[in-house]
Structure formats: structure tokens, C-alpha cells
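Thread amino acids onto this structure.
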């Protein structure tokens, strides 16, 4: 039997189409590019002005403009319309193809969309996309460029190939989702380890947001914390190009999508943010950032909402229930890490307060040194920051500064309270306080890093100090800093037998003995801290 030329051409066209589909499928590793290539190929093959590939969302309530070709692409991409609305909605709901030669007067055509994008649709051809067992979307093409317009052959061509396209999309999504989930679980394990490897609350929050953008392939992410006093949410960490602008914004409880989640304590996926009445538009205006879709979950500690985590603008596609599960899991991990960090900070603060109370109790034995410990602490921290010490070094220095005179508990009251200069015997007794202090602290294993600052704070740079006569670099840096700060406070504090020096005179004394009694670098750091106003006389 001899085939007609037109039928022969039709078969060749379909064979080329199938071959091209196969090439696209095997050459691309992700769903998004697969969809784009399929739609671009259909638009070209059918010689049309524009086309859209719609996919039904996971709740099967809305059609998503997943791929759009033509000049309206930017305006329509990512938008949604209810299943059943418009021609595409009707096709997705009924599973039946639809062809109209007069779209402008067709009751199913959504004129408002055409008006919004300033586009006149004359002809529309739309067919359903079937997956394994249900409709998963629709393909719609608009305005054929030939004079005759769409024909039954076009309808049959698109209809017969839509099934193949649907199955390709389903298989590709399944493969992509499997690979994606495997990568996400691997990342979750890594992120859990990273988050729980620190007890610093700010570091936990920063690492969390960096992880979100990587895990969920979003353009940006934010962590908002609830201010208990004002009942406002503020952006503690905001990741992305506009992070700094966003951090200036505060939301009332219930305001915006984040405020709603914080108030209700429930997670939320919004894949068409611009159409959601809860959207806080001032945030977009302030940051000049267009929020397309958002995934937001509450962060709870012991059932109480302390903030929310957001992932904003999925780079490819829309947020899913799977994404929600991942972010919820991450929020739970973050809540545990933050709670542990808060407990650690509380314990640390309690210990510091107890240490200060102990130091102040010792000071009460000497009525002329009131506030000395607090002043030495503040001076020492200012110098440490000026010298760019690490956080760990500063923490150890703080405790050493607070406890540097704890050994005076072993010095007799008559010596501590003496209103004149000490004699040789009294001075020898006073010289024992660094060793006594170090011996006391040695019994607390967690304070091992504090001992050097206590034991050596009376050493001199030239080796003529006590208790061991250490000099120069042999003296730990924390002790060298406390030595300068301790001496400055002693010089500027009134005693019964002399009046304290003024700031400039005391600073000149430090400079005079730099390289002799004091480390020159520490003296320079101390003077710079004063010059920059980081610390002032008598601060305590």
C-alpha cells in the first residue's frame, strides 16, 4: 500500500519529534532544562507566537506557569491559576484537549491575563499532559504564524505527543527527586554536624541560613527572631544580595508571611507571593527585591516560637512539601542548637557573675580599691580588641582580669588595709598573691587557660617582676595586658597617702616604662584604645 505524501510527511514529522524528545531527555540532567527544551522545541516545531507548559502543584489546586515562551515570559513565569480556570485550567481539570479559533470571544479564555501582558490571542490550542496515572499539567500554544491557523492535524500532533512528554517529565522528575533527596540528606547530615559544633548563637544562625540556600536551591534565606518585649520580628541573619537592606526591617507579630507563621506557629508554602494578601510589600520596596515564592517555618524551643526561618525564591521551580519537610527538620535542629547555646551563655554569665562577686568580696577587704576589678576587666577587653585577639583569648583574658587578685584572699587584712607604703616584710607577703591565686584556680580544670594571666600579671618586661622573674615573650600575653591595665588603674586611683594621676600623666608613665616594665605593643594598644574612645578613665 502506497502512503500519501501528506501522511508520509506527517509520520516523518512525528518520528523527528520523538527522536528529538529522546535527545533532549538523555542530554539533560535536570527537570527544569528538560521542560524548557521541550517547550522551545514545540514552539519552533509548530511555528507559533507563544506557548506555555503548565504543571499542577502538589496540592492539585493550581496550575503553575512553569515554562513560558514568547514576549510575555517574564511576566507570566511562576504565576498560578486555579485548576478549572481558563482554557488551560479546563483542560487540566477535564483531561480533554481544546481548540479555539476565536479566543477573544471564547468564554473560557481569561481576558484579564491577555490585558495584563498586553497580548492579543486569536487562536489557542491546549492539550492535557498525562503522567503515569493522572493529568500532571497542560501544554498551550497560541497564534500559529501561518494563514490557515491551527488545524486538526496540529491538534492530533500535539495530543499524540503530549502523553510521551508527560511520561518523560514524570520519569525525569522521579530521577531528579531521588538524586536531590539523596544530596539533601547528605547535606543535612553535614549541616547538623556543623550547626552542633559550636555553642555561639550568632554562628549557629549564620551557618543555618547559608545552609538553607544550598539545601533548597533558593536565592536567599532569612532567620527572624521574635523580640519578646516589642512582639516584633527582626532579621537576625539575612543571606543574599539584599541582606543588609532587609535586616533593617521589623515586622509586628502577625504582619507579613513571616509574622503570620510566628503568630500561628504553623509552616507555610506560598508559591505566588505577589498574589498573597499576607505579603509584606514594604520589604520588597525597601530592598528592591521581588519575592516570587517563599517557604517559612517556625523555630520553637520547648513549644514556644522564638522566630522563623525563610527560604525565598526557589531558583528552579517552586517549593514543595518535600522542601517543607527538610526546612522543618532543619528548624528543629537549629532550635536545639540555639537552646544549647543559650544555656551555655547563661552558665557562662552565671560563672562570670559569681567570679565578679567573689572578686568584689575580696575588694571589700580593701576600702580603697573599690571597682578595681571591673575597671581592669574593661581596660583589658578594650586592649585585647585593639590588638585583634581571638574570641577564645578574650574569653580567657576576661576571667583572668576578674580573678587576677583572687590570691589576695591569703594576704592579711592589716597589709591590705594599710594606709601607707608597705615595708619589705609586708611586700614579700603581698608578692605571694599571684601564686596563691593560681593555686586556687588550678583546682578548676575548665579554667586552665586562665591561670597564666593570674600567675604572671606582676611580671615585668625586663625580668625584674615576680613571682618567677619571667621577661619579654616568656610572659603570657594575657598577663602582659593585665599588668598594663592593673598599673594604669593603680596610678589613676586615689590612695590615703597620695592622689591619683590624671589620664595623660598616667599614659605618659606607661609610655616611659614601655620596654622596661611593660610590653611596648600592649602599651601602644592601651593608648590607642583610649584615643579611639573605646574605654575611658574609671569605667566600671
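Threaded sequence (540 positions):
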Amino acid at each position: 500500500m502506497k502512503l500519501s505524501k501528506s501522511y508520509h510527511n506527517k509520520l516523518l514529522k512525528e518520528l523527528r519529534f520523538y527522536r528529538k524528545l529522546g535527545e533532549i531527555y538523555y542530554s539533560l540532567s535536570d527537570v527544569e532544562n528538560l521542560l524548557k527544551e521541550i517547550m522551545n522545541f514545540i514552539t519552533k516545531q509548530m511555528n507559533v507566537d507563544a506557548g506555555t507548559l503548565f504543571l499542577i502543584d502538589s496540592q492539585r489546586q493550581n496550575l503553575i506557569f512553569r515554562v513560558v515562551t514568547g514576549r510575555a515570559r517574564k511576566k507570566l513565569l511562576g504565576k498560578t491559576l486555579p485548576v478549572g480556570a481558563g482554557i488551560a485550567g479546563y483542560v487540566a481539570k477535564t483531561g480533554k484537549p481544546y481548540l479555539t479559533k476565536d479566543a477573544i470571544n471564547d468564554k473560557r479564555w481569561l481576558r484579564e491575563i491577555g490585558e495584563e501582558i498586553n497580548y492579543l490571542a486569536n487562536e489557542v490550542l491546549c492539550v492535557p499532559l498525562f503522567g503515569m496515572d493522572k493529568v500532571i499539567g497542560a501544554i498551550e500554544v497560541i497564534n500559529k504564524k501561518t494563514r490557515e491557523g491551527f488545524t486538526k492535524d496540529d491538534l492530533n500532533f500535539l495530543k499524540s505527543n503530549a502523553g510521551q512528554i508527560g511520561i518523560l517529565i514524570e520519569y525525569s522528575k522521579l530521577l531528579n527527586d531521588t538524586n536531590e533527596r539523596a544530596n539533601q540528606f547528605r547535606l543535612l547530615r553535614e549541616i547538623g554536624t556543623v550547626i552542633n559544633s559550636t555553642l555561639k548563637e550568632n554562628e549557629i544562625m549564620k551557618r543555618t541560613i547559608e545552609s538553607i540556600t544550598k539545601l533548597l536551591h533558593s536565592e536567599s534565606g532569612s532567620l527572624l527572631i521574635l523580640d519578646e518585649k516589642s512582639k516584633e520580628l527582626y532579621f537576625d541573619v539575612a543571606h543574599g544580595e539584599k541582606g543588609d537592606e532587609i535586616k533593617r526591617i521589623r515586622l509586628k507579630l502577625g504582619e507579613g508571611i513571616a509574622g503570620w507563621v510566628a503568630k500561628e506557629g504553623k509552616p507555610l508554602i506560598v508559591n505566588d507571593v505577589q498574589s498573597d494578601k499576607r505579603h509584606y510589600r514594604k520589604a520588597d520596596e525597601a530592598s528592591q527585591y521581588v519575592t516570587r515564592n517563599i517557604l517559612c517555618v517556625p523555630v520553637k524551643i520547648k513549644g514556644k516560637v522564638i522566630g522563623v526561618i525563610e527560604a525565598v525564591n526557589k531558583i528552579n521551580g517552586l517549593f514543595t512539601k518535600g522542601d517543607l519537610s527538610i526546612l522543618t527538620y532543619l528548624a528543629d535542629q537549629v532550635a536545639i542548637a540555639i537552646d544549647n547555646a543559650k544555656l551555655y551563655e547563661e552558665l557562662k554569665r552565671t560563672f562570670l557573675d559569681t567570679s565578679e562577686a567573689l572578686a568584689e568580696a575580696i575588694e571589700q577587704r580593701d576600702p580603697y580599691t573599690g571597682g578595681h576589678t571591673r575597671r581592669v576587666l574593661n581596660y583589658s577587653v578594650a586592649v585585647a580588641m585593639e590588638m585583634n585577639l581571638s574570641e577564645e583569648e578574650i574569653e580567657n583574658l576576661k576571667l583572668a582580669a576578674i580573678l587576677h587578685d583572687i590570691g589576695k584572699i591569703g594576704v592579711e587584712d592589716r597589709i591590705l588595709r594599710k594606709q601607707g607604703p608597705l615595708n619589705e616584710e609586708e611586700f614579700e607577703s603581698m608578692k605571694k598573691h599571684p601564686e596563691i591565686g593560681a593555686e586556687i584556680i588550678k583546682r578548676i580544670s575548665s579554667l586552665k587557660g586562665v591561670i597564666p594571666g593570674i600567675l604572671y600579671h606582676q611580671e615585668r618586661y625586663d625580668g625584674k617582676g615576680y613571682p618567677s622573674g619571667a621577661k619579654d615573650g616568656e610572659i603570657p600575653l594575657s598577663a602582659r595586658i593585665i599588668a598594663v591595665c592593673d598599673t594604669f588603674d593603680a596610678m589613676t586611683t586615689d590612695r590615703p597617702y597620695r592622689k591619683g594621676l590624671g589620664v595623660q600623666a598616667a599614659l605618659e608613665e606607661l609610655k616611659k616604662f614601655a620596654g622596661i616594665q611593660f610590653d611596648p605593643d600592649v602599651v601602644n594598644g592601651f593608648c590607642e584604645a583610649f584615643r579611639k574612645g573605646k574605654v575611658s578613665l574609671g569605667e566600671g
